[in-house]
Write a structure and sequence with these properties.
- The structure is a single chain.
- With 640 residues, the chain is an alpha+beta fold.
- The chain has five domains: 129 residues, 2-Layer Sandwich (Beta-Lactamase), CATH 3.30.450; 106 residues, Beta-Lactamase; 66 residues, Helix Hairpins (Orthogonal Bundle); 151 residues, Histidine kinase-like ATPase, C-terminal domain (Heat Shock Protein 90), CATH 3.30.565.10; 116 residues, Response regulator (Rossmann fold, 3-Layer(aba) Sandwich).
- The chain contains 19 helices and 22 strands.
- Helix 10 runs parallel beside helix 11.
- The chain is elongated and about 140 Å long.
- It catalyses: ATP + protein L-histidine = ADP + protein N-phospho-L-histidine.
- InterPro entries: CheY-like_superfamily (IPR011006), HATPase_C_sf (IPR036890), HATPase_dom (IPR003594), His_kinase_dom (IPR005467), HisK_dim/P_dom (IPR003661), HisK_dim/P_sf (IPR036097), PAC (IPR001610), PAS (IPR000014).
Length: 640
């Protein structure tokens, strides 16, 4: 609009076009219209007709100019015409489509044309197409809105640095919030910014980054520390790039600032977790090699043959003991995975915590006696009832007792105590053992934390027991805590559970049914396992127990075998080639010779999802390798 002629420069002719000046009238790039005093169209220049996409102007002559505008703009147009009649010039911006419907925005000037007698003779209306400028402005505004939205979502601050004036300005409130300054704060130079906001150890790197960016016309990036108004160290990330200034190339550095303290803390935690994971894997390798050594030596010894019964028995006991140890390690790994993964379901019932303690002490007694510890138990005379899963609660107390026994030098003292409050029951296990350093006490329940305070490995284990305790206690709605006065001062672990106060008492333990009297019969058992050694050893064990054994190493051979034989029990590996054990079980369930047989999965897959799949396939039992032979014998005895 600033390029339009002013009212004083408008020619004041006595007639319509010729006196305005035909050259000026036709050469104008704008849409120029001459109206009569009533606002009716008299003429329009050719460029105007092109701009309005008018093919035939004749029908428009004599029409009210206001009628060419959209209805909502009519009042604005009529007001401008009225002003021209009173001798004033008006300006307005308005939307009006062309004759062919093309949407356009116009900057309009409406001015009076006076005759020689200074009386109003005509009205001049000049319309300039500003659609392009309008679209550019809208696009710029939209871009600015999107930038604001993006910076808000990403919690980014904006800044500008002018190297000519050496001034840094904050371009949004987020920048002020990150730096802890008021929005009205005065600009600072780069040196003052570094001195006032950055950690002293990072100032030199900041100066080098700025100098390199400006000198090399490069993108600027800096990550460093700053101290907030409370003195706490926080991390910020600055990113920027040179930008053209007013007529001078690359005169500004514009960019963003972000508070990355949370990210840095997360990175530190990830690095720490990765380090502890590596230490755990080293521990796992160590713990697995320990039992493998005596097992391997026993196997080599048995190959020599010609041993008396006592030596064979001793060798077998060593193998059994070490396999049991390895099985315990693997079960711990699977258990902590299931519990922390949320796939374990609690089978809850009202329970007396005193009974839980009795069962846990019975399990931990061999370790406690073996280390020569004195165990003192303090329980209240009345029932301390909680709602929980008996198996998991025994596991919690047993892990705490085992932990105390392992980390207390031989001949130590362990105190187990139950205390009751109105709403809570607290069980604590205290020892006079090696204690825990203060900085480790808060992390002792983390996965794989064992390596940090038992690097000598004398206690053994994988550092999973306490992590499992914490997860199981929280599943019961309780809390767990650890206290130690420091190295050599012993430790106290306490578990707090909700007390059951609705009048229900813990049920008496159900007595296990007595075995039916009589001699168990011999069973026909089919073993299917592609591991030849595992299948042979299992068959030898069960054959020694008096059963008739058949061994196959593939599902195809097993299906062929059942065509000519009947079996009472089928022990199937899951990970078979060609057809897995689940598919084989489904086939056996549909065959008349094995439809009523007991199907037992013997597998290395022990997750809950694996058990669900085996049950869906038709298995009656799911046993994880290495098989608990006692449990297997019980199952077979039930069948026999």
């Amino acid at each position: 609009m600033s390029d339009f002629p002013s009212a004083s420069s408008v020619v004041r002719p006595a007639s319509i076009v010729p006196d305005i000046g035909p050259a000026m009238y036709e050469s104008s790039p704008d849409c120029v219209k001459v109206l009569d005093n009533g606002g009716h169209i008299l003429s329009m220049n050719r460029n105007g007709q092109c701009a309005m996409e008018i093919d035939d102007f004749a029908p428009l002559v004599g029409l009210p100019w206001a009628s060419l505008w959209p209805h909502e703009m009519a009042a604005t147009v009529l007001t401008a015409l009225a002003a021209a009649r009173s001798g004033a010039t008006s300006r307005f911006d308005a939307f009006c489509p062309t004759a062919k419907g093309t949407p356009k925005w116009w900057a309009v000037i409406v001015a009076p044309i006076f005759g020689a007698d200074h009386q109003l003779e005509r009205i001049l209306a000049i319309s300039r197409d500003v659609s392009g400028e309008r679209q550019a402005g809208e696009a710029l505004q939209h871009s600015a809105e999107r930038l604001e939205l993006a910076t808000e979502a990403a919690e980014l601050g904006l800044w500008t640095w002018d190297p000519l004036s050496d001034q840094v300005t904050w371009d949004n409130e987020r920048t002020c919030a990150i730096l802890g300054v008021a929005p009205s704060a005065l600009p600072v130079n780069a040196t003052r910014f570094a001195a006032e906001f950055l950690h002293p150890d990072d100032v030199a790197r900041f100066a080098q980054a700025v100098a390199a960016s400006v000198a090399g016309d490069l993108r600027f990036q800096f990550e460093g520390r700053m101290r907030d108004k409370n003195g706490a160290v926080r991390w910020i990330e600055l990113y920027g790039r040179p930008q053209d200034g007013d007529g001078q190339p690359r005169t500004q550095l514009v960019g963003t600032i972000a508070d990355i303290t949370a990210r840095k803390l997360a990175e530190d935690k990830l690095r720490d977790a990765d380090r502890r994971k590596d230490e755990f894997l080293a521990m796992l390798a160590h713990e697995l090699r320990n039992p493998l050594a005596p097992i391997g030596a026993a196997a080599e010894l048995l190959k020599l043959g010609k041993f008396d019964e006592a030596r064979v028995r001793k060798t077998s006991e060593i193998i059994s003991r070490q396999v049991s140890h390895m099985t315990h390690l693997v079960n711990d790994l699977l258990d902590v995975s299931r519990v922390t993964g949320g796939v374990v379901k609690l089978d809850t019932a009202p329970l007396d915590l005193r009974d839980i303690v009795a069962d846990a002490v019975e399990q931990s007694a061999p370790l406690i006696r073996g280390r020569g510890h004195k165990l003192c138990i303090h329980v209240p005379p009345e029932a301390s009832t909680v709602l929980g899963d008996a198996k998991r609660l025994v596991q919690i107390v047993g892990n705490l007792l085992n932990n105390a026994a392992k980390y207390t030098p031989d001949g130590g003292k362990i105190d187990l105590r139950i205390a009751m409050e109105d709403e809570r029951v607290t069980l604590s296990v205290a020892d006079n053992g090696i204690g825990i350093e203060h900085q480790l006490a808060c992390r002792v329940f983390d996965l794989f934390s064992q390596a940090e305070h038992t690097s000598d490995r004398t206690a053994g284990g994988l550092g999973l027991g306490l992590a499992l305790v914490k997860s199981l206690v929280e599943m019961h709605g309780g809390t767990v805590a650890c206290f130690s006065a420091g190295t050599g001062a012993g430790s106290t672990f306490s578990v707090s559970l909700p007390r059951l106060r609705d009048g229900r008492e813990a049920p008496l333990a159900a007595r296990a049914p007595e075995r039916l009297a009589g001699q168990p019969r011999t069973l026909d058992i089919l073993v299917v396992d592609d591991n030849v050694d595992a299948a042979a050893m299992l068959a030898m064990l069960l054959e020694a127990a008096g059963h008739r054994m058949t061994v196959e190493h593939s599902a195809r051979d097993a299906l062929a075998r059942i065509e000519t034989a009947r079996f009472d029990v089928c022990l199937l590996d899951i990970g078979l080639p060609e057809m897995d054990g689940n598919a084989l079980a489904a086939r056996l369930r549909g065959h008349p010779h094995t439809r009523g047989a007991l199907l037992v999965a013997i597998t290395g897959y022990g997750q809950e999802s694996d058990r669900q799949r085996s049950e869906a396939a038709g298995f009656d039992q799911h046993m994880v390798k290495p098989v608990d032979t006692g449990r297997l014998m019980d199952v077979l005895a039930d069948v026999a």
